[in-house]
Amino acid sequence: MDLYYRRNKGYQKSVLTNNTINNSRKKAKKTQMVEIIFLMVVVMYILILLLPIVSLSSFAGINKIVKLLGNEEAISSIKLGLKTSSYSLILTFLFGTCTVFFITNIKNKVILNIIDIIIQIPIVIPPATAGIGLLLAFGRNGLIGKFLSSFGISIVFTPIAVVIAQFFICSAFYIQVLRAAVDNIPYEIYEASYVFGASRFQTITKIILPMEKRAVISGLLLSWVRAMGEFGTTIMFAGNIVGKTRTVPLQIYTFLQSDITMAAALATILYVLSIILMIAVKFFLRTEEYS
Q1: Average pLDDT, the chain
Q2: What is the per-residue pLDDT across 267-279, written as a single tens digit (0 to 9) for each?
Q3: How confident is the model at residue 23 (pLDDT cuts 50, 70, 90)?
Q4: What are the phi and psi torsion angles at 155 (to 5°)?
Q5: Residue range 185-198, pLDDT digits in tens
Q6: CB 269 within 8 A of CB 65
Q7: What sign does the dihedral 249-251-255-261 (CA atoms) show?
Q8: What is the 3-state secondary structure (H, E, C) of the chain?
Q9: What is the structure's pLDDT at 96?
Q10: Torsions phi, psi of 212, nearest 5?
């Protein structure tokens, strides 16, 4: 009887062990299948991201891209885009940084939520809607435009309008990136700085901003790329005037009306410019990390 009991118990253990092994194998197969599905989704996503640049460059061809570098209108649009986006980036840094550190001091959640909604408006509204709004605000009969017109100042359909349009759209991206970084800074760092006699301005400029240099550069990069690619707000508010308000996206749109190959070539150059800038910033950030 005792021998039978031992054999039966050993058999049960063997069955349990086999079941455990089978269950582990099934789980491993399921995990492997999930990983394969994830891999397929990621590969498809990367292909979707790379497909436009590959299609553009192959359609335009190297000869057309080289030829485009001698086109006065294309070069003018690139120069104008770099110039206006640089100005808008300066405004984004100044206004955006001040806004972020002002928000961090707000304790009232209702006021904070209202300011959050206002800041995110440029991200959620259609660019054309933003352009019409700016046009009505800065036009001759607008709230601000009417006042400026009395001094002989006109904003609409000028390079200043391009800067304002780019700043209006891209500033929110910088604010979001920098705010996410600043919110994670322990308040003890502020207190330690105050104990050593630093003012709030000195704490922000000499301690916090250098600490969050990566976030500042990343946010500005994101804003710069968005400003360079801005189309809807610019064409509504600043127009499409050669050498004055025609940035790269507007020049691509203009080429598209007559020569799609030229449009593809200029779009490829814009892609390459953005990628080069991103690589340069990534290299800079890595250098700073290991220095």
Answers
A1: 84
A2: 888 888 888 877 8
A3: low
A4: -105, -40
A5: 888 888 888 888 88
A6: yes
A7: negative
A8: CHHHHHHHHHHHHHHHHHHHHHHHHHHHHHHHHHHHHHHHHHHHHHHHHHHHHHHHHHHHCHHHHHHHCCCHHHHHHHHHHHHHHHHHHHHHHHHHHHHHHHHCCCCCHHHHHHHHHHHHHHHHCCHHHHHHHHHHHHCCCCCCHHHHHCCCCCCCCCHHHHHHHHHHHHHHHHHHHHHHHHCCCCHHHHHHHHHCCCCHHHHHHHHHHHHCHHHHHHHHHHHHHHHHCCCHHHHHHCCCCCCCCCCHHHHHHHHHCCCHHHHHHHHHHHHHHHHHHHHHHHHHHHHHHHC
A9: 94
A10: -100, 35
Tokens 């397929």, residue? Answer: 40
State the Cα–Cα distance between residues 84 and 229, nearest whole angstrom.
Answer: 12
| Whether the predicted pLDDT of 70 surpasses 70 | yes
Looking at residue 90, its pLDDT comes to 95
Domain spans of the chain? 1-60, 62-290
Which of 131, 207, 198 is closest to 169 using CA atoms?
Answer: 131
CA end-to-end distance (rounded Å), the chain: 76
Residue position matching structure tokens 């709004």: 133
What's the pLDDT tens digit per position in 84-107?
A: 999 999 999 999 999 999 988 888
Helix axes 159-182 and 213-228, enclosed angle (nearest 10) = 150
Assign residue 239 a region (left: φ > 0; alpha: ψ between -120 and 50; beta: otherwise). Answer: left
Q: In angstroms, rounded to a whole number, what is the distance separating the alpha carbons of residues 270 and 248?
A: 8
CATH superfamily of 62-290: MetI-like (1.10.3720.10)
The pLDDT of residue 11 is 46
Q: How far apart are CA 267 and CA 113, in angstroms?
A: 38
